[in-house]
Design brief:
The chain is an alpha+beta fold. It has two domains: about 90 residues; about 190 residues, 2-Layer Sandwich (BirA Bifunctional Protein, domain 2), CATH 3.30.930.10. Helix content is about 40%, strand content about 20%. It is built from twelve helices and ten strands. The strands form two sheets. The protein has a seven-stranded mixed beta sheet, sandwiched between helices. Helix 1 runs antiparallel to helix 2. The structure holds 3,4-dihydroxyphenylalanine (DAH).
């Protein structure tokens, strides 16, 4: 068979190989097989040496034409493969801007945070400052300087989370306390901030202190081991029980509504004398009595009293010159009353279905 015929057949083969290549790799393999150093066309060129001098020019010309033809075919195929790849990429990565977006989940302010802010707003409106105390306290600030006796039950490890437990309740411990040594605890009340204010500021003092407190209680519908209080302290010249009542009535009406009645019930707190608990008229039965208010017509909302002179003196404030009142509001209680919450544990879950309602 003649070399010319071989060349014709190679043109046919080249067409087929190049057209059937669907990737850049297949096309490169075709190029190597046809034009490479050991490729089919190269082989044929080598065989030209066996031709007669007359035949050589025409066959050589034909071989060169074929080389250019194949190179052109490969070039065109390579361009069209690149274009196909580009189109595939475009359609694969296309963004359909008409599709609805994925809405990011945004949180919601916690009910207790908004209650605390509301309480702060009411007292700031009456000229009070807001002070944030520390959650980890010493027994001195949490109990001793608040006039709580050494044997007060709330000091026991059953009622207080001690951070450094120095065998509370033992004789050694009582002796250490008699020497004035303090233990470290998670504050059980925000009242300790009264002592910090008395130590750090000069009267007149009008301050509130909101924040979390901790007690070893098993969570149930009405108790949480971690909850929030808003402490209040006023110390000035000539402060009377009338100021206390006027202030707290103003707060309660701003918080719960102008039509609310209040009741001041005598109670005991170590750091106030006299002390009382304040009840607000039930919003379900308006004082007639129902299951929500346990048929009393009233719901307890806060503790308060006139600051005990011992508390003022222990922190270096002249109790002959200054008098004052203090109060402690439970934020979860306020939330429960305002929104009729059946179970306080819902406040601890972080469940958006619950929180987004307020
Ligand atoms: N600290 C008290 C408690 O946790 C609440 C309280 C009562 C605070 C009377 C006061 C107060 O400032 O005067 O139960």
């Amino acid at each position: 068979m003649s070399l010319v015929e071989d060349l014709e057949r190679l043109e046919q083969t080249a067409h087929e190989r190049i057209e059937s290549a669907t990737t850049a790799e297949q096309l490169e393999a075709a190029r190597v097989a046809l034009l490479g150093r050991k490729g089919q066309l190269t082989d044929m060129m080598h065989m030209m040496g066996s031709l007669s001098p007359e035949e050589r020019p025409a066959v050589g010309k034909r071989a060169n034409e074929l080389r250019r033809l194949i190179e052109g075919m490969i070039e065109r195929s390579s361009q069209s493969l690149a274009e196909v790849a580009r189109q595939n990429l475009i359609s694969r990565e296309a963004v359909d801007i008409s599709l609805p977006g994925v809405r990011p989940v945004i949180g919601h302010q916690h009910l207790i945070s908004s209650i605390l802010e509301e309480i702060e707003d009411i007292f700031c409106g009456m000229g009070y400052t807001v002070e944030y105390g520390r959650h980890v306290e010493t027994t001195y600030y949490n109990f001793t300087a608040l006039n709580a006796p050494e044997d007060h039950p709330s000091r026991s490890a059953r009622d207080t989370f001690y951070v450094v437990d120095n065998a509370v309740g033992t004789a050694d411990h009582a002796e250490a306390h008699a020497r004035g040594e303090s233990d470290i605890l998670l504050r059980t009340q925000t009242s300790g901030q009264q002592v910090h204010a008395l130590e750090n500021e000069k009267p007149p003092i009008y301050m509130i202190s909101p924040g979390t407190v901790y007690r070893p209680d098993t969570p149930d519908a009405c108790h949480l081991p971690q909850f929030n209080q808003v402490e209040g302290l006023v110390v000035d010249e000539g402060i009377t029980f009338g100021d206390l009542k006027g202030t707290l009535d103003t707060f309660i009406r701003a918080m719960f509504g102008e039509d609310r009645k209040t009741r001041y019930r005598p109670h005991f707190f170590p750091f106030t004398e006299p002390s009382c608990e304040v009840d607000v008229s039930c919003n379900v039965c308006h004082g007639k009595g129902c299951s929500f208010c346990k048929h009393s017509g009233w719901i307890e909302i806060l503790g308060c009293g006139m600051v005990d002179p011992n508390v003022l003196e222990m922190s270096g404030v002249d109790s002959e010159k200054y008098t004052g009142f203090a109060f402690g509001i439970g934020a979860e209680r306020v939330a429960a009353l305002r929104y009729d919450l059946p179970d306080l544990r819902a406040l601890m879950t972080g469940d958006m279905r619950f929180l987004a309602q307020f």
